[in-house]
Amino acid sequence: MLKVGITGGIGVGKTIVTRMFALLGVPVYDSDARAKWVMRHNPDLQQELLATYGAATFTQAGELDRTYLASQVFNNPEKLAQLNSLVHPHVRRDFESWAAAQAGKPYVLKEAALMYESEAWKQMDQIITVSAPLELRLKRLLLRDTHRTEADITAIIAKQLSEEEKISRAHHVIYNDDRQLLIPQVLTLHQHFLLAKA
Length: 198
Hints:
Elements lengths: L1 E6 L6 H10 L4 E3 H11 L1 H11 L12 H8 L3 H24 L6 E5 L14 E6 L2 H11 L5 H10 L3 H7 L2 E4 L6 H16 L1
Parallel strand pairs: 1-3, 1-4, 2-3, 4-5
């Protein structure tokens, strides 16, 4: 089975692209959603989080207190890196289990904003980067994330791996720039992956 990673910065449109692949019957692993699930359900990771961030990491009911955890790592690159170093290995193992359960499928997709930062790219056979111009990303994000200012969004983008770096490391690029149609790009890659597996 071919394992294909899909990445891109905030606001490029990874979600719409992965939905198109899903409509073609391709299993899609959403790293962000699965990371949240693993943090709530993996006892080993829960113990690591408790040991690192204290009892307030979980509520009285045993739920992960995401607000508290965010307050511990927000604007602290070292603490954020520490959190990622705890979570990412568990997510990588979760992906391997999930992929094994997709036996018989020609290929699977793993969507991850932090594909390179988390070293998830090492599990992939090929990588797609979704790309969009900065001005268009800002416009989309201001419409989508109404609680954020342009300064907030610019700060998030500045912390992410650059668009150029992601493109240079990818095997394929999908341009979501409102000039090139998305569906033909997705269909072309879909056929490419089916033939690569055949």
